[in-house]
Design brief:
The chain has about 425 residues and is of the alpha+beta class. The protein has helices spanning about 10-15, 20-25, 35-45, 305-310, 335-345, 365-385, 410-415; strands at about 55, 65-70, 100-105, 120-125, 130, 140-150, 160-170, 180-185, 200-205, 215-220, 225-230, 245-255, 255-260, 265-270, 280-300, 315, 350-355, 390-400, 415-420.
Length: about 425
Amino acid sequence: MFFIFVSSINLNAQIDVKGKVKNQSNNRANNKVDKTIDQGLNKVEDGVKNLFKKKKKTESNDEQVEQNEEPKSEVQEQVKPISAGTPSLAAYSKFDFVPGEKVIFYEDFSQDAIGDFPALWNTNGSGEVVNTNLYPGNWLKYVMRESIWTDKLLTLPDNYTLEFDVIPIEGTEGGMGGWSFRLMKCINQKSWDGGAVPGNAGFQFGVEYFGRPNYRAYNNKLDGQFWDQKGYNEDDKIKQKKDQKYHMSIWVQKTRVRVYQNETKLFDVPRAFPDPEVKMDRLRFEANAAMISNIRIAVGAPDMRNKLMTEGKLVTYGIYFDVNKDVVKPESYGTLKDIATVLNEVPDVKVKIVGHTDADGADAANLDLSKRRAASVKAELAKSFGVNSDRLVTDGMGESQPVAPNDTPVNKALNRRVEFIKQ
């Protein structure tokens, strides 16, 4: 059983004990409360028993919806988002990130049982797979000062993109613990590399306990000398907050690394990997406290014009949707913008937009969802990018045309796609 503090409940509004209750609520993680106020807080917590829900597979393609679970004997606390709603596509107007064309690594922990440590990862600390009614899907949750890493080494080319969702949560000291992520060239293939600059080389991105993002790029064997580069982003508007979800995007082009948080570019480091011969081969998440999911690595910059105009078919994995819905997510902006540029340069060409799903769920539901998603893509291209909608027709194939077996998260991710077919 894991616990996350419900940070957004207004305890003062429900218990009329002024300063003391406020202090008590902040310190409960450290068990520094007196008996009287602790009883009052427990009564408030009884009102949020049902925040947790368990997953129930329904007639959807690759997503899951949730059903209320009967409350258990212990109060189950849950993260609560600071702000509701999804940013509009227009908010991403300066977002130039375009994910790679082919998915080579995908992890959403869907193959792991709730409460277990994920099978394809390793750790010198602890972690567990959890789910939540507020953010659908399975999440890897950790609260510790150690590391969790990919057990199998990655084979990465010169150019690739990496994305994941992260929710900073309460750490061991109370309040947001901060978190850290690292791409590295490991030394110990079957264990972990310790120290502040582990492995032969690496790129670390971190968020401090007060929300400030930072990075460190290093190489321990560059011409026999240590190479190190660090940076911070001091903009208060982009500081991360506890219990709020962020979409992180990393774009690697040989020595250059760009890091995005939601729609904002945080860092653009031209020589993050000064020795192009040193290829990163391990993904690692580190101290202090976070929930991680939807980790996606893809390779190959999509040549959209050539694919569509010459080959007659463009397959894209860079258009995203919320769980079980047909609403285009705003991080799709870079991909949609590039596609719209091609379409607007050749105004006489007509295109069919076709949605595809994986095989999870019922055939009929998958077919319906794929059709609705294709229609949403058409609507966004017309509304947000000025593409003449008369040139666009839509269809959906559901799960009927897989490009890979539906047996692993990576293969399922390959089957979830949108195709543009020249007419």
